[in-house]
Specification:
The protein contains 16 helices and 20 strands. By secondary structure, it is of the alpha/beta class. Helix 1 crosses helix 14, helix 11 runs parallel beside helix 12 and helix 13 runs antiparallel to helix 15. The longest helix is centred in the first third of the chain and has 40 residues. It is globular.
């Protein structure tokens, strides 16, 4: 019997071994198919037939937010130098660095100048009528290198010569002792041994070298690295044994890079650790872990976004309405404004509505003013203008905003018919019913086809994109044919196609777009319905007719599909 058991175990092991071998073989075959598909869409650079990919990669501008700019700057090994005239501790000097960072997203083409001028004049006319002649031009808004509104708070007035102020200098990269001695603190200004407060906020730094903080280890009591590009707290802060206050808000910090061992073992004097507004550090469990680690003597500040905090009772509808664009009522002004960041809403209050101070006399730039309060104030300003009985302007929008109706360029009927036929067959496929690759958008089906040129050559993502594109190449080719019939230059550059079915509402912003997109709709819905609405300015929106037409829309502004 024992022999039989051993034989059974041996057979089982052989069976499992064969299964593992077959699984590995299938995986290898799949990878090989993806590699072959990748070669179809990413041929050798010397191949003359590579024109489409070559145009797509060479003419597409690489843009992005703070994280993308920081990554590109790291790859380019940019050093830390101020890029404009700076003043500190009464001494003036000037340094320059090569222009780098995010390039211009788009430029106004000559054929679009008249359209832009018309939309701007429309906005100006309504703004003057609502706010007065003093608002003929938008109010100036001072912003830092991250696009955040600047505050009027003068740190130097509080700390005097004990402060070394590096804020708002567009410093980029690693902050070193060379920066500290030759750039920020001229020899005659003050001695390093007298510095108690170091302000590096509102720059684009991602590390601080150990030698930069070592001369300050015995005196520094507060360090502010807010509004930078730090993905982890600098290891060098462990040498700051007298540090009482550490501020690292509005960075790119990751939960596993907060150096808890350094904060607890080497920094016994800490009283405040402010890590608010770091998007990846938003879980309540992380806050509880940090607080238990550093102890009750340290005030730990963290912006908790998950689980979502309860609504602020002092606001009308809380900080946000709806968990995603898919569940928001696109007819409501609040839903149309929701895609904007809180800082963009604050800028609108100041620039477009002339607001300077909050009810308690503070400015709208303060980060301690909640999104809910900013939104409530902005909606009330819109309502005041909509309720103005003396207004002579005609606003054909229930929210008081002017609507401009435009139509795209007509696509040939033969192309439209083939596209419609292909889409009907595509969505009728049983395996694709209910396919929603973008669940935050209200649509029965939503699929994205990406050119492998969007990804790093030979990467796994590029291989997957190529395999998917091979499977649905007929749709990609039809989209290219339709696009090429209207705008051949754009057809040679675009890198993604979204194929949707019954897309409705969903006010949102396409944050990954580096320029405008083209919308093209076919189907049996009535003419004049299903328009794409896009915000042109604070008081003007456009209703774009895309039925049987190809229309360019800038998805980097709030847009949605009407009924």
């Amino acid at each position: 019997m024992m022999a039989d058991d051993n034989d059974t175990k041996s057979n089982t092991h052989k069976h499992l071994s064969r299964r593992a071998t077959n699984k590995a073989k299938r995986k290898q075959e799949k990878a090989e198919k993806q590699r072959q598909a990748l070669e179809v869409f990413l041929p050798d650079a010397n191949n003359d037939n590579n024109s489409l990919v070559r145009n797509a990669t060479s003419n597409t501008t690489s843009v992005g937010g703070k994280a993308t700019r920081a990554r590109l700057a790291r790859e380019n090994n940019n050093s830390t130098i101020a890029n404009f005239h700076a003043v500190s501790n009464g001494y003036e000097w000037e340094q320059h660095r090569p222009q780098c960072g995010a390039p211009i997203l788009s430029q106004i083409l000559p054929q679009h100048v008249k359209i832009v001028e018309y939309l701007e004049s429309k906005e100006q006319e309504i703004r003057i009528e609502g706010k007065g002649i003093h608002m003929k031009e938008r109010m100036a808004v001072l912003v830092d290198c991250h696009g955040s509104m600047d505050t009027a708070y003068n740190v130097g007035a509080e700390h005097g010569n004990e402060l070394c102020d590096f804020s708002r200098l567009n410093l980029l990269g690693n902050f070193s002792l060379t920066s500290l001695t030759s750039l920020a603190v001229p020899p005659k200004a003050c001695s390093l041994s007298t510095i108690m407060h170091l302000d590096l906020s509102r720059n684009e730094l991602w590390d601080i070298t150990t030698d930069a903080l070592e001369p300050l280890s015995a005196t520094l009591v507060s360090l502010d690295i807010s509004r930078n590009c730090f993905e982890s707290l600098p290891e060098s802060i462990g040498a700051m044994h007298e540090l009482k206050e550490l501020r690292a808000t509005h960075n790119l910090l990751k939960p596993n890079a907060l150096r808890l061992d350094v904060l607890t073992s080497d920094m016994k004097q800490l009283e405040v650790i402010d890590l608010r507004f770091n998007q990846k550090c938003g879980k309540r469990s992380l806050l509880e872990l940090l607080q238990s680690t550093v102890g009750d003597k340290v005030e730990m500040k963290l912006t908790v976004t998950y689980p979502p905090p309860p609504p602020d009772p002092s606001t009308v509808n809380g900080d946000r309405v709806g968990a995603s664009p898919a569940v928001r009522d696109a007819k409501l002004l609040r839903s149309q404004l929701e895609p904007w960041s809180t800082m963009a809403l604050r800028r609108r209050l100041v620039a477009d509505f002339g607001e300077e101070l909050t009810g308690d006399g503070r400015g709208w730039a303060g980060s301690d003013i909640s999104r809910g309060h900013v939104m409530d104030r902005l909606l009330s300003m819109y309502q005041e203008e909509a309720d103005d009985k003396n207004s002579s302007r005609i606003c054909n929008d229930e929210n008081g905003r002017a609507v401009v109706y435009v139509s795209g360029a007509s696509v040939e009927e033969s192309i439209r018919d083939r596209v419609l036929h292909a889409l009907k067959e595509f969505w009728a496929t049983a395996s694709l019913v209910g396919n929603r690759e973008r669940p935050s958008i209200c649509a029965e089906n939503y699929m994205i086809l990406c050119s492998p040129s969007m990804f790093e050559s030979r990467s796994r993502n590029a291989a997957k994109a190529a395999a998917k594109l091979t499977k649905h190449k007929a749709l990609w080719d039809l989209a290219f044919e339709a696009m090429n019939s209207v705008d051949p230059m754009y057809a040679s550059q675009y890198t993604a196609v979204a194929v949707t079915h019954n897309f409705v509402g969903s006010p949102h912003i396409d944050k990954q777009n580096c320029g405008p997109f083209y919308g093209f709709a076919v189907g049996d819905f009535e003419e004049g319905t299903g328009n794409v609405f896009v915000e042109c300015s604070a008081r003007v929106i456009a209703a774009v007719n895309t039925k049987n037409r190809m229309a360019k829309v800038d998805g980097r502004f709030p847009h949605w599909v009407g009924p």
